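Chapter summary example.
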Amino acid sequence: MSERNYRAAIVGTGGIATAHARAVAASGGRASLVAVADIDLERARAFADTWNVPAAHIGLTELLREQEVDLVHLCTPPVLHAPLALECLEAGVTVLVEKPATLSLAEFDTLAAAERRSTAHVATVLQHRFGAGGLRLRRLTEAGALGRPLLATCDTRWYRDEAYYEVPWRGTWESEGGGPTMGHGIHQFDLLLSVLGPWREVTAVAARRARSVDTEDVSMAIVTFESGAVATVVNSVVSPRETSALRFDYERATVEVEHLYGYTDDDWTVTPAPGHEGVASLWARGHGTTRSGHNDWFGAVLDARDQDQAPPVTSQDARRTMEFVAALYASAFTGERVRSGQITPDSPFALRMDGTGAPWEKVRAT
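The structure predicted for these 366 residues follows.
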């Protein structure tokens, strides 16, 4: 166990803040929650009372002025992520940002540039990378134990009704940055990308089928990877039978996981190809019972801090995922295949995820 105790603060005390508070509480004394902040001070005080936090503030500026902290967890609506993260970096405080880290690729690049100038770091919360099954799959893939990856499917089929979108910042390009591609499916396809490595090109569609929102409520993509593997990615908030499912077909085995908001080792299955039955025993080694989520991710952050390293997920890791999101929207809204690196800083899809405009908005305008 680390001898260091990191002073942590949470900014934004809405629903997701509870997961962060639990992760700090579960750190075994490696971190302590010393302050919270929210534009609704009464809500901040109530949250502080629940979690026995000694200080509550009206905003980040006041918190940084009055508290000495090592880590700030940003749990605000996405539109506030970039400006608040920049304020943390300028103060020399490492910032842990809920997904999506920014509203656009251009905003993310601004954040990454600020990180390079700072003594602090920025880490995006993409926690499914850190579940035992995800870690094991990456390790076996990198070792070549499963053979070449050939085909994958990645489904995030969730259900969000109209009441969900009554929260003013949800379902808008200006406040949330996108629909289920940006705010829901990102967990699953980030795990996909972390396993299969650099992606080469994307062909996609996006549609607004059922929800009264500005963004899409469904998107689908076909992805080709540098390894030659191909994958499909589905993101939905209109699916009554909810599931989060990934399937990886390798030369020597099919590896699958199906869960909803977090997986355990029991949610994974391995089907060896004929003649490769030994793969099953490789997978069974180190079977665990913990659920993927903020706890394991935060533990990895603290491990990195103990070693004076950049915390996961690094800016480079997160940018690769953000570029994928931008490419998916660019392909869906232009009807063209989009290659990695094609979205340059002057591209409209670098500046906003809806780029040249969603097709349904153009129809309404005419």
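To summarize the output: Residues 128-291+321-339 form a domain with the Dihydrodipicolinate Reductase; domain 2 fold (CATH 3.30.360.10).
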